[in-house]
Specification:
The chain has 8 helices and 9 strands. By secondary structure, it is of the alpha/beta class.
Amino acid sequence: MKKYSKRYKALIDSRSKNKKLELKQIIDEVKKNSTTKFDESIDVSLRINMKQSKGGDLSLRTIIKLPNGTGKKSKIAVLCEPDKIDEAKKSGAEVVGSDDLVDQISSGKINFTKLICTPTMMSKIGKHGKVLGPKGLMPNPKLGTVTTDITKTVKDFKTGLVEIRNDKDGNLGATIGRKSFSSDKLLENYKYFIETLKKEKPDTIKGDFIKNIYITSTMGISFKVGAK
């Protein structure tokens, strides 16, 4: 049986009895229930319809650039040719290297949360896919992490570019900001996230693409969003 803290029980007890809250009200409630001392993230969790009429389940993996960013700090590594190292350092990447960075990765030293790679270096990092893949760190052209424009790519990931993908049950989630964000900025990020996700619906998916949506904070309680 789950045991909840006094703080969490108090949040449940204080939850609005009105189950038909408007989206803006839900975001206000989520912010109000972010009662910890740190700047909690505001997260969207949802389940999509994966069943395609032409057989096979949908596997969705894409990137979305939120208009107001996420407020999340990423430690970015750039793997590039030696003559591009200065550019990578000036871009704001925390970890930069060429063959030396490949050696660090092969030895298991992974001290970053996002890896950006130039096309030329992909042949050298490819054999480490079994290590980087499960951690979600393997560079991928479709996700913008294989690039010739290092400066722009680092800036994008530091200012709101988020990667989303569903699991085998169709669940996916993303951070749309922090509790320190204004409700208006969170609302704008949420709407942009959902509208962009809807555009990813394949023609082979029949019926509603998004089955349910919940908004919550890191340590708070979740609120179901009624409208899809």
